[in-house]
Please model this.
Amino acid sequence: MPLLELEPNYSLHYELIPGPTHRPCLVFLHEGLGSVSQWRDFPQRLCAAIGCSGLVYDRLGHGKSAPLRSPRTIHFMHEYALCELPRLLAALLPDRPYLLVGHSDGGSIALIHGAARSPGLRGIITEAAHVYVDDLTIAGITAADQAYAAGRLKGLVRHHGANTETMFTAWCRTWLDPAFRFWSIEYLLPAIQAPLLVLQGEDDQYGIPAQVETIAARTGGPATPLLLPGCGHSPHLELPELTLDHMATFITGLAG
Model:
């Protein structure tokens, strides 16, 4: 099990997907309750389809990475985007160009990172990213909290082990904190210059379609918005072939 030790008590589990080193590496950022294993084989399939290498990892507190070291704050996505991710890239992909593929919280983290304009960043793909908190998000997370309390999310233990309780509580309590209702990263969007593919399912239970519209309209670079009919919060799991095709076309276009 590869572990990257960034500092004492701060180790990150990661997996590298082999591929040519002269092409950008795809870096996958999982959702708020996600992990490496919850992507299933989608990263490997996407990398194989376009002939690129890949990096999948568990953020601190998730999966097989070290536990959270302190209570999560409303700035947690900024911390992952601007502190943890750059250190991971510097250690594992020094001087390599890369693209970010972020799902849900991972998509928001990708946008925050994109606004910092790293010279190695070639593009960003988001699935169900949030740039502000909407009422549907709160309703969806409230329902997840109730499901967890009723024992209906026990499957998370297979992916997060001893991290499960702390990880879920940190995610849920932060998003449902009344102070977090004012969270927004809309102000960052004009600073993003990297090309964007902005995906979301039309039936996403955690976010309204206006999230896609806002990202595409306000980013500083080219953006392709795409709402997928008959799809919920996880396009890469619910419509894997269609999602893979859209992502591969976008990435190939960048390479061209």
The chain has a mean pLDDT of 97.
